[in-house]
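Lay summary

Proteins are chains of building blocks that fold into shapes. Our project writes down both the chain and a compact code for its shape. Here are two examples, one after the other.
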Amino acid sequence: MHWSERIADKIIEKNPSKEVYTCASGVSPSGSVHIGNFREIAIPYFVARALKQKGKKVRFLFSWDDFDRLRKVPINVAKIVDGYEKYVGCPYTMIPNPFDDGLESYGRHFEVEFENSLKELGIDVEYIYQSKQYLSGRYAPKVAYALEKRKEIYDILMSFKSQEATDEEREAYYPVAVYCDGCSKDSTKVTSYNPETHELTYVCKACGKEETVNVLEYFKIKLAWKIDWPMRWKEEGVDFEAGGIDHSTPGGSYDVCSRVVREIFDGEPPTYQAYGWLGFAGVSSMHSSSGINITPEGVLKFYTPEIVRWLFAKYEPEDAYNFYFDDTIIRHYSEFDKSLHSYLSGEGDEFTNSLFKLCLIDGKNYIDETSFSTIANLAPIVNFNRDSLVKAIKKLDLEWTPRADERFEKATYFIQTYQPEKMFKLLSEKNAEFASTLGEEEREVVSKLYSYLKAQTEVKDKEVQQFIYDTVNNPELSKKENMAIQQKYFKIFYNLLFGTDSGPRLYLFFAASEKDSYLELLNI
């Protein structure tokens, strides 16, 4: 059984007669949403799919926390515009867009960026924009109620802390952030609240404005996060949500908010799943607000949407794992293809079948695809020329399948961006200087290879591979000794062809490339 099915069963068991189940997620558009945040979306998305597969009606909500404050200016924003620090403390939707894309605000730029990636990933979402919810007045009664219950809320929060609570702090506690009507910053201090008249007085430390407002009419007031989160659980009827391990420890945010929703808002916390961190091998810690991150859009440049979904579906939520930017990517494609074949052929086990029902995109027709590994190995050989690549694939008696162009695009980006060392360019003339260093026996081996290739009407990969090994190996030597000889001669071939000590897989290179392009380089 897949983990999403186990969670779905728990949700149904908790409330078996509910007509529509709600799975929820949310992110703040503080900057480009990095791929590490995708678990926040993927886990409830897969649970929602599992519920649907069990015949249940489901809402999948994604909240943009765009009424949150800008905490710091990301590096990528600071690079293109000066003075953006003046907007620190303002909500994301009240900050001008620093990018030339025609979108109405800072927050909206990063929302659209991520929403486009979710669309490409085939993830259907019901978006809720929290700035619109607050500014429409929808939450105003909840704000007034939380202010009325502020001392009870304070007691709940302090029960999870080790320090002693004081009567003075309790009296001064207000569970809201007020955005100043003058400068739009949250650098405000609430000085009083009258629950009978709903009048709140605040002073802005940034611009000095002092004002008394009616919280049922002044909507630039946001609940503090640990009150806002449980309020929305009750408001939207949330049945399931996931959260990072930092929110999931005993006495952490989920435990605090569970008491708040029960004791203040008369609701029940949703079924909850903690998830482990997603790491990036060779990349320092990433945060949206730092401007240093790898986004879903960036990952989709080398992974197809199905493989991104597969990667996030196959691991248990608690498992931490790393993204790699090396041959692991090729290995993932091979693993995906092997598992997909078993699923399509009806030979998959229970987990594999459940996994692919979740990660394949509805409406797409899936078949055994052209190997990504083959494309990645051949693409640099033919200098990333698509027509030459198709021809080379067919010379290897393989098929160029309908979505092979997509894989070719991903492989090209992957190699050129992360493995440029795999791009080898043939020499324009013979490497006479290197050839002069070769002994008589070595030159004889090169001559045999040249003569063999010249005689072939069509070079076949397996046949040329066998010829090379038969030519350089000595049957009287051990396997280890022959491997050393192979390495010696491959180094010679690479230097004659590319002027380097290493290169592409030679049997593929000889079979895929036009013979006239390389043959004379071996004629020494």
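And here is the second example, written the same way.
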Amino acid sequence: MTEEDFRHRWMVISTQTKGTERFSRTFGRRMAGSKGVGRFSARYLGNIVTLTTVAEDPKTKVRTQLIAEFDWKLITSNPSMAAVTIPFSVAQVDRTVDLGTKLHITGLRMEATRISPSTLKTDLLRLTDPAAGLEKPHFDQVTATTKTSRDPGFSVIFDGLADEVDENGISQSIEQKILDAYVGRVRLSVDEDGQLDYQVFWKGHDVPLAEESIQINEIIQGFTADVLTSANGQKEDARGLVKEVESIQHLPVSMALNSPVFVDLRFFPKRKGTFTDVGVNGTVAQGWIKDKASFAVVDNNFAMDAYADTGSDWLGIDASKATNERSWQSIFTPALYPMSPVDKADPARNPMLALARGSQLIGRVHIATRKRPPELEDECQDWLQPNMDRESLRSNGAYHLLWHIARFAAELLAHFDRQVRLQEEESANARKQQEARTSLSAAIQELKSSTVINPAYQKRVIAQLESAELRFSETAQYERSARLSLEIMAMMGVMAGFMTHEFEKAMDNLHSAAAGLNKLAILNPALKKAAQEIQQHELVLAEYLDYMRVFVERAREPVPTSFKAKGQVSRVLKTLSAVAQAHAIDIELEIDSKLVGPFVPVAAYNGIIINLVSNAIKALVPKISVDARKIRIYATNDGANHILVCADTGIGIPPYMRTRIWEPLFSTTKARDEKNPLGTGLGLGLSVVNEVVKKMSGKIELMDVVPPGYTTAFKLTLPLENSV
């Protein structure tokens, strides 16, 4: 407050200013009260109230400090209020002195000394606004009602309590203390060049669990209107977009928002100990979180009503919880954190099932919309713009993109909540197992050193305990390898597709031959061709079955080993040769016979290759051009890595599928083509390949620049040294 404010507002009871000024000048806070007497209620807590306030002249930038002392014993003892004089002083201070107002209450009354700090903080919490405790964006606009970018809120400090200030000596507001007790937090920003930066913080972790920077156009380029708009003859959804994106909400997106974005989102599940160190009643704090929960959009410091209400569910978070949605909804999450099919199918591991409820989230999505320049009026159809009433944003591509960014923040919390809890469970189980092994070893040693136990009985018991100890170790080793084994086995899904198709054709031929054979098999010429086809299919099926037996045997024990790369790739190609020949597909293999393969389980390497080659065949079967149908496989060793590339001249992968191909159970329309011999696959291939490769410290990627003459290429990188 300035001296003018002190004289004509603070010291005047029932001032009319609140009737005309409903928001504070500096932070745009909503005014409370109306009679102007609440400020004097401090006298009921203590006899001496010292007011210290620092203000800054907006023109000269000079800061002044006003100090006034209210001695309530002296004031109340005076029979005439008009005769009361409040001493105060005004002095210029350095700009390092913080702006704001403080009330220092001393000479506490007996009633005040009986109030515990915890109770007072709990009562004050009900009056606070969570927005004051959240981080504000750096791009806050300076308006008539907002002069600075950060609202410090208000705080209550008790003399003698060491935890009332942070490490910088700055007092924390009550709402800030509550919000800083989050279990998880996402801090995300997007600048106007399309760079998205995000950090994920977690309770009990000193450093961020994730800290990444990406260009959003690398992910969203396949989901724009020009890519997704259905062409004549294509199947389309109700929006007129290609059928493949029917399950994805809020499409198409624009390539830019034309506004910066800042997200601060905090997660408060109802878990024991969340508010232990805050100094307030945990039940009340949890109730405050529930009452204040929202993930509102704030445009130039104006909270938009359509997204601020807890019941709006504008991101569909509670809808996902209600339907037990198992798939990521933001286009960003599957691209950056794809789920393995094993995790997706397991409720205990699926991260989407850990999605927070809306009542557990407090956050803000800050944007700064602006009017479109006249010269861009026709070009920027997807400019992020508020509606006329400013209660919501126009539903266009820019809003769709903002939706996916905000939903990504919520899904990040789900991903890391599941990850952290699984890691904690695994650590707890490991500790219990170690304790059990230690106890068992100690018991064995104690028995061995005993001199009072019958030797024969002692020997028998020790043998039994040592056998149990061995089984214990074997079980631990099995648990470590079982998950990798399961995911390697999952890559058999594509083989199941081959076998099913070949069996169906063989059964058709057998059926047509049966009638003739029943009459006169030897003399009926019509049966000759059918008999030859049956023999050919039997050979193909035998090749598949032989490969499957070897694959399953190796997958049961996924032990890393050394092998020659060409021999394993050749074995896979031999298995698929019948399918390739039937569709005039030429497969070129360029691998030196002496090239050492990666130090990984052979079954894993074979499974990866068979999925890459089968995907290439799938892309070549529906090709109708006269160009050659070719697959090229080449490999080399570069430093510490084995690198293999599988390229094809097929129909290619549309931009909108480039990120979705890694999703489990996602398949293209061509994969459902009845004429495609590989069309009965399970849609697990690339998802499982991606998961298995990551577990072996490798990388599988869809190449942006493919070899000349080819349309699609995948690059596999695996370590040559032991990493499993």
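What can we say about the second shape? Residues 426-471 form one domain.
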